[in-house]
Structure formats: structure tokens, C-alpha cells
Amino acid sequence: MTQLEKLAALRSEMKDKGIDAYIIPSSDPHISEYLPERYKCIAWTSGFTGSAGTLVITADFAGLWTDSRYFVQANEQLKDTGFELVKLKIQGVAEYVTWLSHQLAAGQKVAFDGNLASVAIAQTVQTTLLPLGIEVYGHIDLLDAIWNERPKLPTEKAYLLDEKVTGQSTSDKINAIKDTLREKHADAHLISSLDDLAWALNIRGNDVQCNPVVLGFLLISRAGNTLFIDQSKLTAADITTLADASVEVQSYELLFEHLKSLEAIRILLDPKRTCFAVYDSIPAGIQILDAINPSTSLKAVKNAVEVENTRKAMVKDGVALTKFFKWVEENVSENTLTEISIAEKAHQLRAEQPGFVDISFDTIAGYQAHGALPHYKATQESNSTLKAEGLLLVDSGGQYQDGTTDITRVISLGKITKEEQADYTLVLKSMIEGSLAVFPKGTKGYQIDAITRQPMWQTLRNYGHGTGHGVGYFLNVHEGPQVFNPSAVDVAVEEGMITSMEPGLYREGQYGIRIENLLLAKPKETNYFADFLEFETLTVCYIETSLVDKTYLDQKHIDWLNQYNQWVYEQLVPFLTDEESTWLEIKTKEI
């Protein structure tokens, strides 16, 4: 079926069921960012493959609401599909609900699949539309009837990690969660989000590409703890190990039946990370406490074992990337390298490192104009051939058994303009400013974001995405609750958090620049005024200096760059050949 045929079939289903508007979020029953094949509903329906967006279909309009990271991509992928791009003004806001409130009249019906919509989204739809007399139905899946050969749920095996790898036992983690539940006077807590479940149970899997997670739900209560999972994913030894940690294993499909018999008086659910179908199945009479998953905050603060292992993963990643950029530089003049082929090479070189499991997200290899698309992924149609000129942006990462990496570098392939040098240097200056930040305990991410943007704002430049996101430990590359962006998110930067630092500049149709390292928040000094924190840079990969225009930098920025590149060389040279060491020595030479 073409996208036009799928849209026609969907509208036919809507007409048969008396539905005037249908909402399809980019999500699954665990409110994941990256999805199993079965739940890639937006990609199947519209052809748009970005990781954030919402489809809204009416009888005479079909739109994709997404943010600025995907505007160019969406315009290209939605061509001739019957769907139109609707540009979000504010990232993450359900602006389509307001649009529906103006398009529909009292008595008309809006529907969505409650397995795909978070509680927060469902409640926004209800509170906006129900007072207008518009009916809302939250348990209707229209895609199943028209999606022939829809993929089944994954059946890959799961596995448990040893406490020596995680630094904390499952029992201790569950007890820490229960401590928070007692503070909030909650009798039970359901974890739906896969990374929270993985952290709590020291379990990993292969159910979602790039994310080492396994599909499941974890119910923690005074009566006991139950993991709902496809039991064929676990060995008998795994089930015994979980039982020793007071975790019973039940079938994945039994969750809803179990919830019907729930005896807890007060249950904690995270409205942003729980699907509406689960929320709406909680029996009447049980009080639902809307609050962030306790595990989300607990896992954001890495313990000493996680931090030390992450440092080891960074060195492995740096070795792979040194080999990668050397290979690109030495082969680009042959005009045989493409965006797809270099992404494959980066994957190959990472896979040669001990403990490698997978990439942590689809590699963004953007040559020249494609670098201006923050979430670009090359396709056979868009795949550019590299030439010995212009800028190449590579944003990539790896999943290792001892950590998760995420790094962006921009390199010169030749014939660089003064404007490109100025933009590159200002991005670098901003990244250094953020990395050098010293701040009192309690500082929020939006304050770090503002510090980082200062060099750009002073030259009347800016970028549309956030400055940084939390990163998991052999888990999801995007992890909360902390984030560095302009939004007033009331989450402090805490000691032990690992967060990306990735300012950028983008000139549509020309080039894009982004430089990204991962930072660890750690203590700086305690004095009369406050407890102060600073950042330690974890990422171990040289930063291109041939693009730097020193006139834009102060001496502190030059010193930081020289010291960082020298540190990178010292960290990596024991693992490189003589030829590779010589090449890296040149790349890390002081400016």
C-alpha cells in the first residue's frame, strides 16, 4: 500500500466508526522514544521516520506536527503522501489539540489508541476538548485492521547484569525506590518505561534498536514485586536470580488482569511515562499519585562503578573514532565515500572494540547541506558522495557493556570559507564555555544552557535545539530527568549526572556545525557561600583545530582546547599503532 492508500483506508475506518479526527502519537505502551517495529505507526502510515511527531487525520486534512529538528526531513518524506507538515512553535507541546478545538464542533468525535498515548497527552486532549462538547475515545486502534503483516512483538533474549558491572544490586535499587514511595505515602508503583525497568532490575535486552532494553512492566508494592515480561526471554537461572531479589516473573500479557485486582490504596504513576491504557485500567477507588518515576532520578546519578566504567567506554570509542577520521581523511579524495558508507565504517570500527554491543542511535553523517539537519539520516535517495571540500558533521555513539557514548565532531574536507571558520569557532567557544561552567548546587539545566549560548548570542547567532540531554549507563542515549535547554525544567544538575554538551549552528542548504562531548557533574568546592559543582569532560576524541579562527577566542578557550587535545592524545596513544599515533599527534598539536 502507498501512503495515499493507507490514508484512504484509515479514513474509511474512521467513517465506519463515526470518528471525525484520529490522533497517532509516536510512541508505544511504554512511551518510548525509540520504538519496536510493531509500533512504528507514524512511519508506516505517513512515511516520516523521525523520532518525534504526531499525526492528526480528519476527513479533509492529514497533518504531521513536529519540531524544527525535522522540518526539512518531514517536507521531503511527506511529499505526495497526503500528509502535510505542521510546524510546532514549541517543542514537545501538543499544539494539535488546540488546532482540533477550532476545527471540530460539539458532538463530533476524536479518538486515539490509549496504548500509544501517554497519560499527560490523553489528559490534555480530554481537558481541552470535552468542555467543548467534543467526544473523546481513548481506546481505539484503527491501524491493526489495515496494517497487513504488522510486525509481532520482538522475542529477543534478555540478560541480567552482575552487580560488579552496575555497582548496585537489584535489591538495593528496589529498596531505594520503596524509600521514595514511603516518602510520598504510596503503597505501589508501576514502572512502564523500559530504561527505568532495565535500571531497577539490572536487566538488558535487544527489543529496541540501539537501546539495550526489554519489553516489560514492573509493579513494586508492599505485597511484592512483579515483572511482567515474555518469560521465554529469560533463562531459569535469571528467574531464580530475580526471585532472590524478591521479584516474581509473570507473563507480559497479564498486566491488565493483574491491575484489575490491585489492592493498593495509593499507586504512583508517571503521567509522562505511562500509557493511557494502563492508567485507565486502574480500578476505581484506588488513588493515583501523578509523579515522576523515582528510578528516573535515581539512575540519573551514576555511582562510582558506572562512572569508572564509562571512562573506559569513552577510551574505546575514542580509539574507534581516531581510526575512523583518519580513514575518512585518507580516502575522501577518491570520491568513493558516501554518507551511508562512512556510517557503516564507523559502526565497523566500534564493533572491533571489546565489549561493543550496538550503536546508541542511528549515525548522523551529514555532508555539507545535510549537516544542517540536526537529526538527518542518509537514505539511498539522499546519500551524498563526499568530496575534498566543505564540512562533514558526524554525530554518533556506541553501546558498550561498560557505558553509552554520544559524540559529534565536524571536520574539514577542504576549501573552507571564512564564514564556516567563524561559525565553527563560535560553536567551539560555546561548548568550551559550557564545559568550564562552575555553578552552585541547585543550578538548573536552563541556566547551563544560557551560559553556553552566550558567545553565540553576543554575535547574534542561535540554534533551535537544546544544549544537552542526560545519557544512560549502557542504556538509552537520551535520559532524563535533567536537560540543558531553554525550558524552565525544575530539575537541578546533581553530582554524578552525565549530560551532553552540544551547541550548534545551522545554515539551511549550506552546512551545519555541532560539537558534542559528554560531561560528568562533580564537586568543585564547598565554602561560605555554597556547595559548588563543575564538569569533567568524559569524551575522548580530538577536536578539529584547522577550522579554528583564534581571533574569536580568549586565551582561556585556547588553553582549554590545547589541554583537551593533549589529554586525548595521552589517553589514546597506548591503544593505537605507530602510524595512527603519529596522525593523532598532528591533529592534537597546540594552536
Automatic annotation (TrEMBL):
<dbReference type="Pfam" id="PF16189">
    <property type="entry name" value="Creatinase_N_2"/>
</dbReference>
<dbReference type="InterPro" id="IPR032416">
    <property type="entry name" value="Peptidase_M24_C"/>
</dbReference>
<keyword id="KW-0479">Metal-binding</keyword>
<dbReference type="InterPro" id="IPR000994">
    <property type="entry name" value="Pept_M24"/>
</dbReference>
<comment type="similarity">
    <text>Belongs to the peptidase M24B family.</text>
</comment>
<feature type="domain" description="Peptidase M24 C-terminal">
    <location>
        <begin position="532"/>
        <end position="591"/>
    </location>
</feature>
<feature type="domain" description="Creatinase N-terminal">
    <location>
        <begin position="7"/>
        <end position="129"/>
    </location>
</feature>
<dbReference type="GO" id="GO:0005737">
    <property type="term" value="C:cytoplasm"/>
</dbReference>
<keyword id="KW-0378">Hydrolase</keyword>
<feature type="domain" description="Peptidase M24">
    <location>
        <begin position="309"/>
        <end position="521"/>
    </location>
</feature>
<dbReference type="InterPro" id="IPR036005">
    <property type="entry name" value="Creatinase/aminopeptidase-like"/>
</dbReference>
<keyword id="KW-0645">Protease</keyword>
<keyword id="KW-0031">Aminopeptidase</keyword>
<dbReference type="Pfam" id="PF16188">
    <property type="entry name" value="Peptidase_M24_C"/>
</dbReference>
<dbReference type="InterPro" id="IPR033740">
    <property type="entry name" value="Pept_M24B"/>
</dbReference>
<dbReference type="Pfam" id="PF01321">
    <property type="entry name" value="Creatinase_N"/>
</dbReference>
<dbReference type="GO" id="GO:0046872">
    <property type="term" value="F:metal ion binding"/>
</dbReference>
<dbReference type="InterPro" id="IPR029149">
    <property type="entry name" value="Creatin/AminoP/Spt16_N"/>
</dbReference>
<dbReference type="InterPro" id="IPR000587">
    <property type="entry name" value="Creatinase_N"/>
</dbReference>
<dbReference type="Pfam" id="PF00557">
    <property type="entry name" value="Peptidase_M24"/>
</dbReference>
<dbReference type="GO" id="GO:0070006">
    <property type="term" value="F:metalloaminopeptidase activity"/>
</dbReference>
<protein>
    <submittedName>
        <fullName>Xaa-Pro aminopeptidase</fullName>
    </submittedName>
</protein>
<dbReference type="InterPro" id="IPR050422">
    <property type="entry name" value="X-Pro_aminopeptidase_P"/>
</dbReference>
